[in-house]
Amino acid sequence: IMWSNFFVQQDEEGRGRGQRRIHKMSDSQEGKIKLAFFVSIIGVTLTVLGVGTEFWVELAQPKNFSGNQTCQLAHYGLWKGCIRTLWVADIDPERTSCGPAELPGESNCTYFKFFTSGENAVIFKKTTNKNLNLAAAIMALLSLTMMVMGSICIAMSLSKGVQFFLKPASFCFILSGVLVLLSILIFHQSVLALLSSNHAIPLHHELSWSVACVGSAGATLIIGGFLFVILSLPFSPWQRCLPHKNSAT
Question: Which residue ranges does UniProt annotate as crossing the membrane (predicted)?
Fold first, then answer.
């Protein structure tokens, strides 16, 4: 009886291992998941680059506003703002405003106090709307949190060899992309609120390369999320041939 129970147990364990082997993803499927994850990682990298830099917007005075050989330009992001003093002689003669910020000059940067004392910042006698700036920053932080959660889901999916975690990963990456784009929209509204707070000094404003990074990141994250949605479908075009392979084996 002991030997018969032993063989029955071994047979059941063998069947269980066979079932797990059947449900485990193939090498081809794992490669596609890694490719989609690479697309998402590009979006994550662009987001971190854009969120961490202070070139979201440039606010430029007319280059002859002060009437001397220098002019001033401000650029800031979610956390920090800088005032740059440039030489008028270095500016393109056809350009009416000071800039661009890449020109050589003196720079004075300070961190915003929205998150500490709650004070508004004053840039060229114009006052920021801290509620809008805080909302944009919170959206960006929530987006980064969702990216981390999505990456954990993909890591678990690859380590366990199952597709169960692809759907929550797709949700996290798509939501992170939407939150990043919302952060840009709210930030742009904060810039418009800043410009309308005081009309004493005319300013030319334009969104800078950090916003381009974050916008590209949002689109990339949404694309990566939809790739995971496709891979998680039981009869997606990328998986249609997999049952035939399993049945042949």
Answer: 35-57, 134-158, 170-195, 207-235
Residue-wise pLDDT tens digits, 53-99: 999 999 998 888 877 888 899 999 999 999 999 998 888 888 888 88
81 closest CA partner among 190, 170, 177, 8: 190
pLDDT for position 151: 94
Residue 80 lies in a domain: yes
Contact 144, 47 (CB under 8 A): yes
Number of H helices and E strands in the chain, helices first, is 6, 7
Residue 162 domain-assigned? yes
- Segments forming the whole domain that contains residue 161: 30-233
Which of 24-60 are b and which e, b meaning 16 or more Cβ less than 10 Å from the residue's Cβ?
Answer: ebeeebeebbeebbebbbbbbebbbebbebbbbbbbb
